Amino acid sequence: MKIIVTGGAGFIGSHLVDRLAHDAANEIVVIDNFARGRRELLAAHEGDPRVTLVAGDIRDAVLLNDAFTGADTVYHLAAQSNVMGAVSNIDYSFTTNVVGTYNVLAAARAASVRRVVFASSREVYGEASELPVAETHPLNAKNAYGASKAAGELYCRVFRETYGLDTAILRLANVYGPRDHGRVIPLWFDAVAEQRDLTVFGGQQLIDFVWVDQVVEAFMRAATRPVAEPINIGSGRGTPILELAERVIALSGTSAKLDVQPARSIEVARFEAEITRMREQLDLTPPEDPLFGLPVIWESWPSRGR
Ligand SMILES: NC(=O)c1ccc[n+]([C@@H]2O[C@H](COP(=O)([O-])OP(=O)(O)OC[C@H]3O[C@@H](n4cnc5c(N)ncnc54)[C@H](O)[C@@H]3O)[C@@H](O)[C@H]2O)c1
Q: Would residue 306 count as lying in a domain?
């Protein structure tokens, strides 16, 4: 079965490719322009004829049309994948996250793909009126990243309703795990590994962290189960950012301090996912402790002990 993973050289995408490759019947085509992805994350599949890496851009409709021929499932993860990046380059976030998503849907339709699973984000909600945030909460994105994901979701819906293209939408909370970089957990592990203090913007944030393996499982299940509406993928528990800082410092055994900077108003400060749909439609249960995976990451942290 031919499966496309856009953004498959990125953090979540590379874990998804590992998982898909477990099934000998799968032929996996990764499309990634390496804006943030890295070839080495797919090194385990070098020489495997079932895994093809296309160095290409989802803004290139011709490339997508060629690559999608004969595909059964498309996991669409390629994106300008964070808030601050989208703010600093709104043009790239629009052309990749909105036009690129349109291109993916159009190519999937042309190739009669069975289902597209779209990686959306909790940023589509903006600052929530109440916690936990259910999927029925209005979409009030407050930054260019959230707006681009909300637009992507609408195009998924339109392709589904107008052209019968089957789409599933997962609204991911804050995903963490090995291979990530540039987000709060990896930045803080880098800091403690290098005996630096932890920079905190504001300090009042409440973040719903979800372990990457659970997210991969959600993608796998969303590809085959009946999924009519967007589904939050989170732990269902908000972790105060200062609690995260304490746990990172305790794990590392350092005496790092917090360097508190003014809050960045462009970022959503408080989020906790309501996860009834995740439980009922994908049959996924979150772990007791959302941050259970921190020691796993720290154990093999690359700059540790340098
Ligand atoms: N990590 C999270 O906490 C989180 C939360 C919510 C949603 N998401 C979404 O999940 C998906 C995967 O996120 P991630 O954390 O793995 O991010 P990532 O940046 O590691 O992966 C995204 C991949 O897309 C690739 N890419 C970017 N622009 C492209 C383009 N124009 N053409 C082709 N490839 C392109 C990048 O090189 C990268 O490999 C993204 O869509 C992201 O928006 C992630």
A: no
* 279 falls within a domain: no
Contact assessment for residue 140 and residue 196, using Cβ atoms and an 8 Å cutoff: no
Measured from the CA of 181, which atom of ligand 1 is nearest?
Answer: 20
Is residue 181 in contact with ligand 1, taking CB distance under 6 Å?
no
The domain in which residue 123 lies consists of 2-175+209-233
Integer CA distances (angstroms), 60 to 50, 55, 107, 206, in order: 23, 11, 11, 38
| Domain shared by 20 and 154, yes or no | yes
CATH of the domain at 246: 3.90.25.10
Catalytic residues: 145
Amino acid at 137: H
DSSP 151-169: HHHHHHHHHHHHH---EEE
Per-residue pLDDT of the chain (306 residues; tens, 9 = 90+): 999 999 999 999 999 999 999 999 999 999 999 999 999 999 999 999 999 999 999 999 999 999 999 999 999 999 999 999 999 999 999 999 999 999 999 999 999 999 999 999 999 999 999 999 999 999 999 999 999 999 999 999 999 999 999 999 999 999 999 999 999 999 999 999 999 999 999 999 999 999 999 999 999 999 999 998 999 999 999 999 999 999 999 999 998 999 999 988 898 999 999 999 999 999 999 999 999 999 999 998 987 765
The verdict on 77 and 138 lying in the same domain is: yes
pTM above 0.90, yes or no: yes
Short-list 73, 61, 126, CA closest to 99: 61
| 93 and 130 belong to one structural domain | yes
Q: Work out which ligand 1 atom sits closest to the CA atom of 179.
A: 20
